Amino acid sequence: MAQIELRNVGLRYGEQTVLSGLTLNVEEGEFLTLLGPSGCGKSTTLNLIAGLLEPTSGEVLIDGRPMAGVAPRDRRVAMVFQDYALYPHMTVYENLSFPLRAIKLSESAIRDKIAGVAQALAITALLERLPKALSGGQRQRVALGRALVRDPGVFLMDEPLSNLDARLRVAMRAELKRLHQQLCTTMVYVTHDQAEAMTLSDRIAVLRDGVLQQVGTPREIYQRPVNQFVAGFIGSLGMNFLTCHLEQDPTGTFLRQDTFALRVPASVAQRLVQQGGDFVVGLRPEHVVIGEGVDVDLRANVEVVEYLGSETLIHLRVGDTVLVGKAPAETLIVPGQHVGACIAHASACIFDAANGGLLATDTDGT
């Protein structure tokens, strides 16, 4: 295992800034995912750790040792690429043995190492096959095995599941999770897939335009995103946003838009009154529950209905905003219908409309 530290790392190509002031620690044995849209600097960060790129400012340390000028082969890191990078003319056994022959390991040691790795990854029966005779999932396991035989201190994975179909990706996610639990090796994983990041990671680092936005556990980032970008990017559907104005009446303080109203706790209301301006209320789709028997906080017209089998997504028109909510699968709702929805007020996030920063969650007053 190894610990990685990035200290104020920046990378520029001429006038273009790719990474800016990135400071990030990856603890020993941790599974950390770099998450963000294309072009945000995820793969660049991975290449800086691997030594395939050198930063123009700041430094990369592995186990407290500065990596400036240290060749990739001397960093005890192993990379798994999106395209697997297997040698097509070599069998699986030969692919696995290649990095071991490069360091002149004995044939008996190579056989023992490959046997152990092949058993762990369930590829023993594939050792005599060529890559062209393997499925996508089998090739992925071989690519993992070739990294694993080197006993690296760090695994670096650059979107390794993106070429697989949806069902196989889910299966391979579970295999990666089991592998990490078995090996307890430090892993840094790059993806733009939120489901992969949420299910695999001990912590997630969200990047945008080369700038780190937030680092935290999947639960922290999902429930307390630091800004609207993170809130909208995390989650398969992202967060609903409603731009609201603050209203006070004898019954309390509310954030309102059209028929939507969110009661604001007194501790939060005082801060919002002092700040003034408009605010954005963020609600996850699962916190907008539609159907019979719910306490109605909001009534709106249905625009779109998406039946998913286990549940139904309902798109509601609220003023100038479309709000996505959820209903039980058996609920019969059609476009054009006027329905009631229950809002989970305790799960709401309140953002500054001017800069998108998180001001408060509805219940904590922070």
Helix content: 25-40%
Beta-strand content estimate: 35-45%
Task: Summarize the biggest pleated sheet.
Answer: 6 strands, mixed
How would you state the average pLDDT, rounded?
90
Q: What sequence of helices (H) and strands (E) makes up the elements?
A: EEEHEEEHHHEHEHEEHHEEEHEEEEEEEE
SS-based class: alpha+beta
Shape: globular
Head-to-tail CA distance between termini? 37 Å
Give the spatial strand order of the biggest sheet.
Answer: 6-7-8-3-9-10
Tally of helical runs: 9
Number of strands: 21
- List unreliable stretches of 5+ residues: none
Question: Gyration radius, to the nearest Å?
Answer: 25 Å
Topology:
Elements: E1 4-13, E2 16-26, E3 31-35, H1 42-50, E4 57-62, E5 65-66, E6 77-80, H2 92-102, H3 107-121, H4 136-148, E7 154-158, H5 166-183, E8 186-191, H6 194-200, E9 203-208, E10 211-216, H7 218-223, H8 228-233, E11 240-249, E12 252-257, E13 260-264, H9 266-275, E14 279-283, E15 288-290, E16 298-307, E17 311-318, E18 321-328, E19 338-343, E20 349-352, E21 358-361
Parallel strand pairs: 3-8, 3-9, 6-7, 7-8
Antiparallel strand pairs: 1-2, 1-4, 4-5, 9-10, 11-12, 11-14, 12-13, 14-20, 15-19, 16-17, 16-19, 17-18, 20-21
Helix pairs in contact: 2-3, 2-4, 3-4
Question: Can you describe this structure?
Answer:
- The protein has 366 residues and is of the alpha+beta class.
- Helix content is 26%, strand content 36%.
- It is built from nine helices and 21 strands.
- The strands form four sheets. Strands 6-7-8-3-9-10 form a six-stranded mixed β-sheet, sandwiched between helices. A six-stranded antiparallel β-sheet has the order 13-12-11-14-20-21. A five-stranded antiparallel β-sheet has the order 15-19-16-17-18, with no helix packed on it.
- The protein is globular.
